[in-house]
Design brief:
Largest sheet of chain B: 3 strands, antiparallel
CATH topology of the largest domain in chain A: Arc Repressor Mutant, subunit A
Oligomer: heterodimer
Distance between the termini of chain A: 80 Å
Strand content of chain A: 5-15%
CATH class of the largest domain in chain A: Mainly Alpha
Order of helices and strands of chain B: HHEHHEEHHHHHHHHHHEHHEE
Number of domains of chain B: 3
Largest sheet of chain A: 3 strands, antiparallel
Shape of chain A: elongated
Helix content of chain A: 40-55%
Structural class of chain B: mainly alpha
CATH superfamily of the largest domain in chain A: Winged helix-like DNA-binding domain superfamily/Winged helix DNA-binding domain
Shape of chain B: rod-shaped
Radius of gyration of chain A: 23 Å
Structural class of chain A: mainly alpha
CATH architecture of the largest domain in chain A: Orthogonal Bundle
Strand content of chain B: 5-15%
Number of helices of chain B: 16
Order of helices and strands of chain A: HEHEEHHHEEHH
Distance between the termini of chain B: 146 Å
Number of strands of chain A: 5
Number of domains of chain A: 2
Strand order of the largest sheet of chain B: 1-3-2
Largest interface: A-B, 73 and 51 residues
């Protein structure tokens, strides 16, 4: 296929890398990237699905000013973030933990556990169930998510997320959450000790 | 280890061998590397000429380097003086004579000029390349590879490159042993440093094999060489894997420390997302997640879900206020009869025929008419009933029951019976 034909295919949908062997050539890939960039698009490769497609260039105008059925608003992105946390962040974090002290390193691919939509809705109580359903529908159409046997798993567009940056931010949020939970637990324990019989002396000692 | 430089004016060390001494060989000389070395001696001797006379060596090397970079090949003594302005001219002249004596400078008596010999240019270049305080061990394979290239350029025998290759393999083997030793010592910092160095050596060795592939091809008939070649590739694989394992393991441990051994469960994750606002969550992916360009098929489930949500919102809206209408205005100049009086008369007439329900008179015509008659009946009862002047010959008996009407726009009516009061004559309406 010529670079123009490849661009047409990429703009039409997600194409398996096997069907586009031409993109393995640096010159062809650069030509395709250049042509897509002229129309405000990026060439996107999905590592997990070994496939190519085109997405809008990052830093495009705000989605709110564009009347587009595919544009993702901040609520859609919040739902996407929750799905990414469950489907990619959680398995990746846990796969980095050493399973065995004797093993130098465990180099297995993180295992993704599919999600129920109810679990997504339960993770964002700020959004109504209907709103989560609508966002999940948009994310499925945009191939950020796939649905198999009623469960959600990561789609090829999930690979476009900048995992390094997102992982760092997620770790910060998680650490803050864990610290707050720990402080809350400690506070509850202290207040329980203070109210327990004979606990006031200990509290007084601690205050001293 | 570098040998300590001797102090100026000191006697040579006692352990240095006297010049007249020669080692005893166990085999004839032609079976030793000495003939090969003999070939290299003329140039090696020039190095000796440069550095072999104690404290003057650095002046000679410095002057040779200055002369090697001059743009002219033939140099009159004045040009040489100009090229080393930092040295007194008579001293420079003496050093030039010394270099000439060592075979590094040739003198043309007719033109009265000096020029560097070919060998001297190589010596100057090598001396320039060696201008460093010590050999950096991380670059040792690179240096050996460079000497192999130099040997190739000098058209040296292939055995020289072969020997250098063996030396490079020995370095990899040393690195491997060192890594194993440090692994047993549990010394993280030294281990990581050694692993990184070993990894760089492995990479350099791969480059060396690639670069010198043509040269090694000459030895492919040599079984011993093939054995060494196999040894080199084995070391590249073993050392490379071990170094990668060590680096990965130590980096992972460092990463764990940096994260404070963060362990994430699904429950934690759910708690974190539940407590975060949607903007914070969206910020995790908003920088990079961009919608694809292709237009997917619409999701009918999502569309009808959205429609249902929209319609649900519509139903919950409060009813709109009624449309404004003009009020009916009655003329004031032709007053009608008092409706309460009319009502009293009508009720008395009804009661004269027997007991009857109030609704029989009230429910008639339109809703507005019925409401008006009800008001009139109440007004008549107030004025002319027991609460008023008690002149009305009708008694209203309000029951607790409801009477079903179902017509004339009236559904139900509170049951009220009209009776004629006992022992009273009809009142005079006038």
């Amino acid at each position: 296929m010529t670079p123009v034909e490849i661009c047409r295919a990429l703009l039409a949908g997600v194409v398996s890398a096997e069907r586009l062997p031409e993109l393995g050539d640096d010159e062809v890939r650069q030509e395709v990237q250049y042509r897509l960039s002229q129309a405000g698009c990026d060439l996107v490769y999905s590592r997990h699905f070994d496939s190519w497609t085109a997405s809008f260039t990052r830093g495009a105008p705000e989605a709110t000013v564009i009347d587009s059925p595919t544009a993702l608003d901040s609520l859609d992105l919040a739902v996407l973030a929750v799905c990414w946390l469950h489907l990619r962040f959680l398995p990746a974090e846990n796969s980095r933990l050493p399973v065995d002290d004797d093993a130098l390193f465990a180099a297995e691919e993180p295992l993704e556990i599919p999600l129920e939509e109810s679990e997504v809705a339960g993770s964002i109580p700020a959004l109504s169930r209907t709103r989560v359903t609508i966002s999940v529908g948009k994310l499925k159409r945009a191939r950020f998510l796939l649905q198999r046997e009623g469960k959600l798993s990561a789609g090829p567009m999930m690979d476009t997320i900048d995992e390094v940056r997102a992982t760092e931010q997620a770790r910060r949020l998680m650490l803050r959450h864990q610290r707050l939970a720990r402080l809350q637990r400690q506070g509850e324990e202290q207040s329980a000790q203070a109210t327990a019989p004979g606990g006031t002396d200990g509290a007084a000692d601690a205050a001293d | 280890m570098a040998e300590e430089p001797g102090e100026p004016g000191k006697e040579p060390r006692a352990d240095r061998l006297p010049e007249g001494w020669a080692p005893v060989l166990t085999v004839p000389e032609q079976f030793t590397p000495l003939p090969l070395v003999e070939q290299a001696l003329p140039i090696v001797a020039m190095f000796a000429g440069l550095v072999g006379h104690g404290r003057l060596a650095r002046y000679r090397v410095a002057m040779l380097r200055e002369l090697a970079v001059l743009p002219r090949a033939r140099l009159p003594i004045r040009a040489i003086h100009d090229s080393v302005p930092w040295m007194e001219q008579s001293s420079a002249t003496r050093l030039v004579r010394d270099l000439r004596g060592a075979g590094l400078l040739a003198y043309d008596s007719r033109a009265e000029t000096y020029q560097l010999t070919r060998e001297a240019r190589v010596v100057a270049a090598v001396c320039g390349a060696l201008t460093t305080a010590r050999v950096d061990y991380t670059r040792i394979i690179k240096i050996l590879a460079a000497t192999m290239r130099l040997a190739d350029a000098m058209n040296a025998p292939a055995q020289v490159a072969y020997a250098t290759f063996l030396s490079a393999i020995a370095i990899l083997e040393f690195d491997y042993d060192e890594l194993r030793r440090l692994l047993d010592d549990y010394s993280d910092e030294s281990l990581l440093e050694a692993a990184r160095m070993a990894e760089s050596h492995v990479e350099d060795m791969r480059s060396l094999l690639d670069e010198q592939a043509d040269m090694f091809a000459r030895f492919h008939g040599d079984a011993q060489f093939l054995e060494h070649d196999q040894r080199a590739h084995h070391m590249i694989a073993s050392l490379g894997r071990l170094a990668a394992e060590v680096i990965s393991s130590l980096s992972m441990r460092a990463g764990m420390r940096m994260r404070g051994t963060l362990r994430v469960t699904r429950e934690d994750l759910r708690g974190m997302t539940a407590q975060s606002d949607t903007d914070t969550l969206a910020a995790l992916v908003s920088g990079s997640a961009q919608a694809p360009v292709f237009m997917p098929t619409p999701d009918t489930v999502a569309a009808f879900t959205a429609l249902d949500g929209y319609l649900s919102r519509e139903r919950r809206r409060p009813l709109p206020p009624p449309e404004p209408t003009d009020l009916r205005l009655d003329p004031t100049d032709a007053p009608e009869a008092d409706p309460a009086d009319s009502a009293a008369r009508a009720l008395e007439e009804l009661v004269a025929a027997g007991d009857i329900g109030l609704h029989e008179w009230v429910v008639c015509g339109t809703w507005e008419g019925a409401v008006g008659r009800m008001i009139d009946a109440v007004e008549a009862w107030s004025r002319y009933g027991p609460g008023g002047d008690n002149s009305m010959l009708v008694e209203l008996d309000a029951k607790r029951d409801l009477c079903h009407i179902g017509q004339r726009e009236v559904g139900w009516f509170s049951l009220t019976m009209l009776r004629k009061p006992a022992g009273r004559s009809p009142r005079d309406a006038g």
